[in-house]
Amino acid sequence: MAAIELEGLSKHYGDVRANDDVTFSVERGEIFGYLGPNGAGKTTTIRTLLGLLSPTSGTGRLLGHDVTDEAELIEAKRKLGYLPDTPAFDETATGREILELHASITGDERSDDLLELFDPPLDRLVREYSHGNVRKLGLVTTFMHEPELVILDEPTSGLDPLMQHRFAEFLRSERQRGVTVFFSSHVLGEVRRLCDRVGIIRNGRLVAVEPVESLLDRSGKVVRVRAVEGIPIETFAIDGVHDLEATSNGFDGHRDGVDGADSEATITECTFTFTGDVNALLERLREYPLQDLSIEEAPLEDVFMRFYGEEGEGAAEETSPGDRSAETGVSDDA
Ligand SMILES: Nc1ncnc2c1ncn2[C@@H]1O[C@H](COP(=O)(O)OP(=O)(O)OP(=O)(O)O)[C@@H](O)[C@H]1O
């Protein structure tokens, strides 16, 4: 049984399809990132899973319990930790009083250990807390009863780099213990470091669910070439070269591809995104002495721009990233 199961989940507000036929599962023991731009529908999914919204249609299950059934939801919540985007703690209470209240409701198996990691000022009133301290208190209340599953809405927002690092280590150790983590995020570096898989939502519709690694693999590499002498431009006219940018003899500036470029043109320095066979590229470059060559993973930001792009450009809606890579061989731009 998966930790989270969504089947055809839709939530409509009048004409707004905040979630539209969303189906995916989060397996036990995995860290799953839920990503999307502002207004994509992430919070709607989370709030529906927590029983705070009723779906227009479809079903959601947490640890096997149907979230639209009150008794089952209560059962699921015993084993669940939830950190909302802005935790609504009583501002007139101290951090310590908040923890005592949570302990009386959900139990407390390990707040002492958690307080060593995330150290909110317990004797201060919550109203005097900074955003980061509210977050730290929230992390303690989310994990203190040893939940099997945690749902975190933008968990690291407001945390300083040291705390973010500590949080990342902590999540990995939770995964070791078999805890399932579902979190929404805009912080792509943390998604890359932490997640096993990601779900990407856009305009209420799920556009991809896949392992972070395969998302990165399919998105290609960033290649930088610096040659001793000019390389004929047609050398780069092979499958998988995109967004070729060159600054050298005969061809300055940016092209989406090399078709249509002057076949006499040469370049000595260029960068491009490459989704083809690296061996084929190296074979092509073999006869030209190089000063430097680097092949790196594409930044995750670029990957997501392929999904989100500009509205109206048809950026990956209903299309898998693999389909898009296939679409975009050497472009016909000129
Ligand atoms: N109560 C509501 N009434 C009408 N529309 C709503 C309501 N709540 C959300 N929406 C709309 O549903 C869509 C999805 O909103 P949601 O808050 O789920 O997005 P999100 O991905 O969490 O965004 P963000 O990253 O900005 O928090 C948006 O278009 C939003 O305006």
Key words describing this protein structure:
334 residues; alpha/beta; Rossmann fold; Alpha-Beta Plaits; five-stranded antiparallel β-sheet; 11 helices; 15 strands; disordered C terminus; binds adenosine-5'-triphosphate; ABC transporter; ABC_transporter_ATP-binding
Textual characterization of the structure:
Helices cover 31% and strands 31% of the residues. With 334 residues, the protein is of the alpha/beta class. It has two domains: 4-216, P-loop containing nucleotide triphosphate hydrolases (Rossmann fold); 221-297, Alpha-Beta Plaits, CATH 3.30.70. The strands form three sheets. Strands 6-7-8-3-9-10 form a six-stranded mixed β-sheet, sandwiched between helices. Strands 13-12-14-11-15 form a five-stranded antiparallel β-sheet. Strands 2-1-4-5 form a four-stranded antiparallel β-sheet. The radius of gyration is 24 Å and the shape is elongated. Bound molecules: adenosine-5'-triphosphate. Residues 13, 16, 18, 36, 38-44 line the site of adenosine-5'-triphosphate (ATP). One of its GO terms (molecular function) is ATP binding. This is ABC transporter.
Low-confidence stretches: 311-334
CATH class of the largest domain, named Alpha Beta
Strand content: 25-35%
Radius of gyration based on Cα positions: 24 Å
Bound chemical compounds: adenosine-5'-triphosphate
The coarse silhouette is elongated
What is the total tally of β strands? 15
Q: How many domains, as an integer? A: 2
Strand order of the largest sheet: 6-7-8-3-9-10
Largest sheet composition: 6 strands, mixed
User: The CATH topology of the largest domain, please?
Assistant: Rossmann fold
Average pLDDT: 85
- Output the CATH homologous superfamily of the largest domain: P-loop containing nucleotide triphosphate hydrolases
Task: State the order of secondary-structure elements, H for helix, E for strand.
Answer: EEEHEEHEHHHEHEHEEHEEEEHEHH
- What is the percent of helical residues? 25-40%
Judged by helices, strands and strand pairing, the structural class is alpha/beta
Tally of helical runs: 11
Gap from first CA to last CA: 52 Å
The CATH architecture of the largest domain can be given as 3-Layer(aba) Sandwich
Family: Belongs to the ABC transporter superfamily.
GO molecular function, one term: ATP binding
Keywords: ATP-binding, Nucleotide-binding, Transport
Pfam families: ABC_tran
